[in-house]
Amino acid sequence: MAEARDEFTIITTFNCNWDCSYCIIDTHERNKKNPISKEMLLEKIYNVTEGATVSLSGGEPGLIDPKTMEKVFEHLVKLNCTIDVFTNGLFIKRYGDKYLQYIDEVLYHCVETLDQEIEFPDMDEEQVTYVIIVTNDNHHMVDDFLDKYPHISFKLACNMKHGQTLNRGDAFKLFMRNKKRISEDSFETLFRYHCDCNLV
Ligand code: SF4
């Protein structure tokens, strides 16, 4: 039987160019109290095991400086890791041309106010998951946003930072209106927020 691959979800930085009210990482607060230096990031990267599955998260990984990013990818590629990236699009803008070729999956997180265009990575469709975090403040904008991108099956998700931030009644109506054009697992992620990742 094949051995299970180790999994690492690495917070690469607490810097972020956005300031989402629902940020579960509390990235800006943590950046003030305990920022992640490039040495700290590289230490995490050098602890990754051969052939592991590695998710690069943040903050926004696109804000890592180019030299450090090069070391990150050099090492992970050498270890033959499967690499995923969580981004709000900045990573794609800044580093897509150089590093998307090494990435297995992009988890793309749309802006909270749903008023910015999507940054499309140059990858196969099945390698990208487009996520909209739905809250009481933005649920009424979701239909129009979906209309703009009829070719994308968005994943809708709730968030539990301050308890349930999406009224269940509104969530249900939203789901029923759009169930034919959103991802199949949106029901699960809209109503049952959970996080089983192992953040380091
Ligand atoms: S883009 Fe992500 S990391 Fe940045 S503030 Fe929003 S939720 Fe937090």
From TrEMBL:
Q: Which cofactor does it need?
A: [4Fe-4S] cluster
Q: Which CDD domains match?
A: Radical_SAM (cd01335)
Q: Name one Pfam family in it.
A: Radical_SAM
Tell me the InterPro entries matching this sequence. Answer: Aldolase_TIM, rSAM, rSAM_sf
**UniProt keyword annotations, A-Z:** Iron, Iron-sulfur, Metal-binding, S-adenosyl-L-methionine
The answer to whether UniProt assigns keyword Iron-sulfur to this entry is: yes
Record field: transmembrane: none
Q: What is the protein named?
A: Radical SAM protein
List the source organism: Halobacteriovorax vibrionivorans
